[in-house]
Amino acid sequence: MKRLLSLATLVTLASAATIAQARDLGPDEALRLRDAGTIKSFEKLNETALAQHPGARIEETELEEEYGRYIYQIELRDAQGVQWDLELDASTGKILKNHQDD
Length: 102
What we know:
Layout lengths: L1 H19 L1 E3 L2 H9 L6 H11 L4 E10 L2 E9 L5 E7 L5 E6 L2
Antiparallel strand pairs: 1-2, 2-3, 3-4, 4-5
């Protein structure tokens, strides 16, 4: 029983550590990073994402810091109504993920 409890504790701690590595950034911090040139403009990042799915519209965006890297997450809905999840490196504009939402 002790061994099972210890394993459960380790799994919980590992999950908490993983969650702690991602941090949502508020609007003020995001604008400060943009103005400092640390991340690309949101217009540029949005253009990059929309170019992947012409005719799509942006439904939601979020900026996070993950392991010291700024990630811009975008949810799009294309002209056929399909939802897409994209992640871009906010500093370089490189597309990291582009997949259809389940």
